[in-house]
């Protein structure tokens, strides 16, 4: 399948093209129903002759080209209607009735605050042009009205408040939020690309509109990506500030699979400057070795790494309810545990050559001994709770 992507250098176009390449090159094998041949990338710097050639050979068109921040509002119609006319006329010229997707906007509903939008009017005109084209040629037309599009590679300080917030907070620049209670409907780029792949497989999702609200329905006139998120500007900024502070607090907020927070965190990280990609951790060092906290979570404890010098014993304490995993990743050691009030000791020889996780049981005093005379013992540790100096639940007692 040869695929034409117009607006290929834009935010959506770049993400779509790179992911189409992954399918074409066999790097993404999750879409066996899609066979990608040529990817024709068309943008403002391409020639009419190239568009003509692409329209001859394409088997599917993603029309992502458009204007959203012109100097003159009259450019909306030329960019969002004029090019669409040229594209459809070129396809008709070559009798190419392949499926074609149109990237429109929720503003085309012309409802509420969008009622006088020049941008919305131009998008609405483009939609009707496509629907008329479908009637005339029999081509399958998929018209998507997108809400706020966000994700990696969104251009900051342009037409995405979320992109601007991510960029500015990541780079320690100021932001302005006039009304934190304003709620946005957000479509993340990876969810959009998934829907574009569904469209290539003939499994696009259809919808109608109740005002500006998307209502998924099997026979709807329009199409929509089924997964979007709603969040207020205030909550978005609150999340971004937590992400910004994570290298200092080490606290990783809850990011459940598929959640808004998980997707926003990925977007935020894409704006980090080079000097923030790596950050130092506080190593607590003494003559026995070191202990370093790596990561803390709000609901799943914390991770640390312990380095013991040759011959050193660490631990010799017990907990009431706290429990841990010790995972030796380098060196050779011995873990001993003894239940409080008992003389019985259970032992585990551990080595980086055979990685195991050993429970440190509640109510058992425990230690870890470096058995080597020359090598450090490196142990990754997980505890079921973040260490609280006001309630350490840690009591010295030799095994």
Q: Quote the distance from N terminus to C terminus.
A: 68 Å
Quaternary state of the chains: single chain
Largest sheet: 7 strands, mixed
Total strands: 23
Strand content: 25-35%
Shape: elongated
Number of helices: 9
The structural class is alpha/beta
Q: Rg from C-alpha positions?
A: 29 Å
Helicity range of the residues? 25-40%
What is the residue-averaged pLDDT?
Answer: 94
Unreliable spans are none
Overview of the structural elements:
The chain is an alpha/beta fold and 399 residues long. The chain has nine helices and 23 strands. The protein has helices spanning 11-24, 48-57, 74-93, 118-137, 161-170, 189-200, 233-249, 260-269, 274-277, and strands at residues 3-6, 39-42, 60-63, 100-105, 141-146, 148-150, 183-188, 206-210, 213-216, 222-223, 229-232, 251-252, 283-286, 289-297, 302-308, 313-318, 324-330, 332-339, 345-351, 358-360, 364-370, 377-383, 395-396. Strands 12, 13, 14, 15, 17, 20 and 22 form a seven-stranded mixed β-sheet that branches. Strands 2-1-3-4-5 form a five-stranded parallel β-sheet, with helices on both faces. Strands 19-18-21-16-23 form a five-stranded antiparallel β-sheet, with no helix packed on it. α4 links the parallel β4 and β5.
